[in-house]
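Every protein is a chain of amino acids, and every chain bends into a shape of its own. Below is the pair of lines this work produces for a single protein:
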Amino acid sequence: MNTVAIFGVGLIGGSFALALRKAGFSGRIVGVSEPEIVARAIELKVIDEGASPQNAAESADLIYLSEPILRIAEMLPELNEWARPGALITDAGSTKSTIVERARASITRCQFVGGHPLAGSERRGVEAAQADLFAERPYVLTPLSENQMKTAAAAWLFEWIQRIGAYPIVLSAERHDQVVAYTSHLPQLASTALAAMLDHRTEPVFGVFGPALIDSTRLALSSYHMWGDILATNRVAIQDALRAYIAKLEEFSRSLDASHMSEEFAQAARFASQIRGPSENP
């Protein structure tokens, strides 16, 4: 592939461009965003040039969609008119079912493989982009069918995901959305709920808090600009995850005695240790 067109040159799209360059991609990287964002991305050497959506799509071998989820779904029929046969369209949306369903109904001229890099930051915009954002992070691919991963274009994407330091995982769109409801969306809402609850209480105004509160409310800094689409497109799975979390909190509220809570702490510590690398464990 010689030309990559990135629609949405922000944190994720910009980081993907920088990661490709760092990994040795020598082709052309074209950006599609608002003029001031494109100008800044060129200044920062994130992309080589800007283009209109149609011109970018018509020239690209890989079309990388890093826009809000509903915007990605909305764009797909139009992109199908512009993309050339042999091109590959992928995306970085945080939920997959809505996008994959729209792609299945509208992408006929080329191939589509859904994607979700599980990497990010509370910061937004092209200034926050970094070449190592995806390093050692999972990158889920959600093809329309298993056979789609056997094409040359999909193999190219799979290989470059590995080259930028991520590790690809292939799932169905439905399974992806069920999993991230628990592993990504629930942590965000737990942090948001904690911060929102404390915002209406007097206790924090005394300044008596330590790193635990800072760490626990870090995700509450995230913008609803992105999360609104996530909540709208994965509502049922998120509600299931919230009910499971609420049930655990209610269990805690009924019994804080030592025999019960010591086992809960031990179980929680085992899980927390498992998902951290050796350097992060005490």
Notes: The mean pLDDT is 94.
